[in-house]
Each structure stands twice: as C-alpha cells, then as structure tokens.
From TrEMBL:
Pfam families assigned: NmrA
Name of the protein in question: NmrA-like domain-containing protein
Keywords noted in UniProt: Photosynthesis, Photosystem II, Plastid
GO biological process: photosynthesis
Annotated ranges, domain NmrA-like: 75-324
C-alpha cells in the first residue's frame, strides 16, 4: 500500500481499453475515441500512469471545405466555476468583458449566481467524458480550476477527467488552456494529489496545446472558515505543531494575474508560480486573527505524528484508501516545508507592481473590520426592537 501514485493509478493487470467514445458535432467531421494504454517511462522518471490516446478519423463522406465560423478570443470556458478560485475567475472575466461559459456538474442546487452575474452555465461532468465535447464548441480558451470533491476518489476527476478534457480540447482545436496546479507538486510523488497535478502538467505539455501552467501555494479565502469564523464563534481552532510556512494569496489577485498571463503571448508554454508577499505558519495566522478579532482562540493542536499514524491505519483498508491519500497531502502541509517563491521575476514578466497584490494582514483586517461592524449594527438593531412590559 506504500506505492507511489503512478502504481496506485495503474495496476499491473490494467488492459488496454476504451475509456469512452465521444461524439463531436458534425462540423468537426471526425469521430473521437479515447483509449488507455500503459506507458513505461517519462523523461527522467519512471511512470506507470495510463496514457490516454485520442484517435481522430476523418469522415470522407462529410467534407465541407467552406471556412467555419471564427471563434472569438474572448470566448472562454471555466471548469470548476463554483469553487473558491473558479468563481473569482468567472467574476474577473465578466468584469473584463469576456464571454464566459461555465462547466458545472448537474446538482440539486443550480449555480444560479453564475447566471445572475451574466455567465452561461452548461452541465457536464469530467468523470463522464462523453459530456465534455459539447461544452467546448465555440470556445477559444479553457481555464481549468476544477478538483474532485472530498468524497470522490482523487483520480476520477483530477486525473482521468482532466486527461479526457485535455484530449478533447486538443481534438476540437482549443486555442489556449490554463491549468492550475500546486507549488512543489513535482517534489512530493508520495502524495497522490500532488503527483496527479505533476503528471497532468506533463500530459498537458506533451499534448501540444498552447497552454500556461500556474502553480499555487494557498488561498487567503480558506483561512476564513478555518480560523477567523471559529475564533469569532468561540469554537475550537485546529492546528498542528509543524513549522510549515505558506504564502497565501487572495484569489481575486490570482484571477487578475491569470488574465494578464492569458493575454501575454510571451508566456505561452511557461510554468508560473503565484505566491503571496509573505509565508506564514499556522500559529502566526492564528495570532493575527486573535489580534484582529480582539479575543483569544481555543486552539487544539494535532501532532504531525498523529496524522502519520492515521494515514498508515487507513491504508490498511481498501475503502479508506482515499482518506489516506488526502491525509498524505495534509502531512506535507504540516511538514517542515515552505510553500512560497520569490515573485519579483513573475511580477516583472506580467508587468505588475508588487504593491498591488494584497497582503494577508490587509485581507484579514478588512474581513474582521467588516464582520465586526455588521455584528455591532445587528446588536444595536436588536436593542432598538426590544419590548419591555
């Protein structure tokens, strides 16, 4: 059970098989099929991930030599549009005048807020490759912000779904593909999600698509639910005893820099890493939240050794393997590592002033100022409506 992700995703008995038969609109005059076959090595590294091969065969009976309708450069498809980063990408794209289409899985609660903003919502599922082609018709650029849900096997969406998306994008002539990855994913092959991200980077590069890969360190927005809200509600805040440092970045800044990179033709094919101005430990974030909230946090510390033991325990059972895979990611995030990079060269490449990128202090200060003001106003309104007999 202690194998790497490559072995985890492709068992020795995996035969060459059809993943799906995808039908394209007749305007493309081709029949697409996606098949999986094992591969042996990649450049400089053993890899047993299944390679997906797209076979496109022309249909001689349906030849149309007339020019097709040009695809506008402003037409984009955002995959994972309802997520923390995806919704900011959609919001930014609409503000900048892009024609935005959002790929959203069918769900009981429809993503009406995306429609209210002015985006077009199309239903599809990366775990069902046959639903992908129709979403790409008339699209110039794909921005992939998606990741699997916690209850799903990691490889279903983050590997098999992304492979199908990339292959279909290539077959249907998508002009540019933006893929969000994880910083240092190439240095942690023992973590399934990180190795999947690294493998997807290589798969995208080898596909021949015009692309940009953006590695991220951490989202400031995630700290609100993890630390800020529990402190305000006087609930337990969970932390670890590890000195991990993460350079969190506001997803609004990530979205803004992404579209600058999208429009810069000199960045095509490059790998960028976005990081915030400073790397923070868990304890430093908690201390900052305590100061801004004006109250102490009830901190419950989980030793890294407990995470390691829990991961080994869940590896013993097949039905808990996915839990173990996610615990492996947690273990890396709680190790003695730094998730940050110098950004001076990236800012220079993008033509961005470092002062325009939000700091964590400013982000959290704005949050606590707004939320405390609202709480104060609610308290005042409550007193005004009290009735005494």
């Amino acid at each position: 059970m202690a194998s790497t992700l490559y072995a985890h995703l492709a068992t020795p008995t995996l035969p060459s098989r059809k993943l799906s038969s995808l039908s394209c609109p007749t305007m493309f005059h081709s029949a697409l099929s996606f098949s999986i076959s094992p591969i042996g090595t990649t450049k400089g590294k053993h890899c047993s991930l299944p390679k997906v091969v797209c076979n496109a065969q022309s249909a001689p009976a349906a030849v149309n030599l007339a020019p097709g309708t040009p695809v506008r450069p402003t037409s984009i498809l955002v995959v994972g549009a309802t997520g923390t980063l995806g919704r900011q990408v959609v919001r930014r794209a609409l503000d900048e005048g892009y024609d935005v289409r959002c790929l959203v899985r069918p769900r009981p609660a429809p993503a009406d807020f995306l429609r209210d903003w002015g985006a077009t919502v199309v239903n599809a599922d990366l775990s069902k490759p046959e639903t992908i082609p129709a979403t790409l018709v008339g699209v110039h650029t794909v921005i992939d912000c998606a990741t699997g849900r916690p209850e799903e096997p990691i490889k279903t969406v983050d590997w098999e779904g992304k492979v199908a998306l990339i292959q279909c994008a290539k077959a249907m002539g998508i002009q540019k593909f933006i893929f969000f990855s994880i910083h240092n994913c190439d240095k942690h092959p023992e973590v399934p999600l990180m190795e999947i991200k690294h493998c997807t980077e290589k798969f995208l590069r080898d596909s021949g698509l015009n692309h940009v890969v953006i590695r991220l360190c951490g989202f400031m927005q995630g700290l609100i639910g993890q630390y800020a809200v529990p402190i305000l509600e006087e609930k337990s805040v969970w932390g670890t005893d590890a000195p991990t440092r993460i350079a969190y970045m506001d997803t609004q800044d990530i979205a803004r820099l992404t579209f600058i990179a999208l429009r810069n033709e000199n960045i095509n094919g490059k790998l960028l890493t976005f990081a915030g101005p400073r790397a923070w430990t868990t304890q430093e974030v908690i201390t900052l939240c305590e100061r801004l909230a004006g109250q102490d946090a009830n901190v419950t510390t989980v030793p890294v050794s407990v995470l390691r033991f829990t991961r080994q325990l869940t590896r013993l059972f097949e039905w808990t393997n996915d839990v173990a895979d996610r615990l492996a990611f947690s273990e890396v995030l709680t190790s003695d590592t730094v998730f940050s990079v110098p950004m001076a060269e990236t800012y220079n490449l993008l033509g961005v002033d470092a002062k325009d990128v939000s700091s964590l202090e400013k982000y959290l200060q704005d949050y606590f100022t707004n939320i405390l003001k609202k709480l104060k106003d609610l308290k005042a309104q409550s007193k005004q409506t009290d009735i005494f007999f």
